[in-house]
Amino acid sequence: MLDQIRERLKGAHVGPVAAILLIQAVLLVAFVVDWRAPVLLAAGFVVTVFMLDHPVWAVGGMLGARLLSTGTMSFFTIGKMSIGLFEPVLFLALIALGLRAVFGQKALWRAWPWKPVMLAIVGWRFLGLFWCTKVSDGAKEIVTFGVIFATASVILAFIETWEHVKTMLWWWTLTCILIGVLAIFGDALGLTNYASQWKAAESGGRETGLGQQPNWFAMNLSFVIHAMVGLALIQKRPAYRWGLLLATVFVFFAMMTSGSRGGAGAVVIGGFIVALGQPLFRKWAIRFSVVGGALFALAAFANLGDLGKGLNRISGNITVLLASDIRALNWSACLGMFRDSYGLGIGPGGYIDHLAQYSDYLYHSVYRYPHGIIWGEIAHTGIVGVILLIALVVTIGRMAYVTIQDTKGTEAEVLAWAMPASMAGYFVWSFVEFSIDEKPFWEWLALYTALHLAARRAKLTGKPLPAWTFSVR
Q1: Domain check: are 129 and 212 in the same one?
Q2: Over the stretch 172-199, which tens digit does the pLDDT of each residue have?
Q3: Which of 7, 303, 424, 447 is deepest in the core (most CB within 10 A)?
Q4: What is the value of pTM for the model shown?
């Protein structure tokens, strides 16, 4: 890639002296503005050059930054948008993608199954700006969807083969292990403690994971758990296989320290789905459920610090899920906004501004958000938004069905089950938490879409993915 750029620059008659003078002028101007700017520009240049010749690793770094990035890692804000670790990495990846498109004739605007539905979701939000409460809040949502499209474009442009997908799963796995290590041991050693920042964690016993709300921390780790088992089962080296299985247990228990009932339920639901379709996964899921259940009971009954508290919270009475009717009150408010807008929705953003009409208690509390994707869509985008959300779920389901069919008998088969199973568990969980633009769901969906496209390509070209002949007794 760098050779192609040099050839193009020669054709444009740009001399090395002129290029150096131009770069020095830019750095000088940056230094006058802020002495840190040229340092960041130089670092960005190095990273961008690396991305040009190592795009797959660049995408891995982008996914790692997405998972690690939290509100506590924000450098500064633009309006109501926080700029942290992920945004600069994404920006550099987009620069590299643009350069590869120009000099390597790589297509940027590719087709993928759920793109039309997503475009419709964003288009309806654009129309909603005409009747939303605050255009600035609505515009923020649309910008967020723009970031989702940009991220998906980067992933689908660079991740084109089954080997690429496996590399990304390794990146995702190692990042989640790192998050678990930093969260658990950071708190144990007194290096990090963000519990006071969240109402849900202020009484102790709920891990926040680098400063995230506990349920968000659980979500960040939950997606990869089933895929880690699938990745372990296709390893031919016993050390990798057992290392991944042990790492799966660690990430699972790190997630459980959040005390999130939804996270625990999502993992169980996803595991059940994979077990239904994959006999080998089912065999090992039963074995590990016995071991995990024993460890769960030991940690809970022995009250092993915050881990025991978090597990006890998960195993407690499920009716506590609706403690003080917080969720029910928000859902009632969402239905009220839907009714009072005659099914049109209040438009993107503006939930808090409307909430005062329906519950003064919620309006003056920290619980003032819809508590569920479907409820947020009911309030903000009305009947059209709900229909589009259902269309999105159906489209993803159809894509998963085709992928499972295309990967039968191949290495990718167990992951073709495991990855959408994680999304299915998240979908059930999303009835009581989250919003439609939540990370890292979209990155996980884009990665699964890359697997779908690779499997389709292999099927249509008659060059199937590697056969899966490995088995574990």
Answers
A1: yes
A2: 999 889 888 887 776 655 555 555 554 5
A3: 447
A4: 0.81
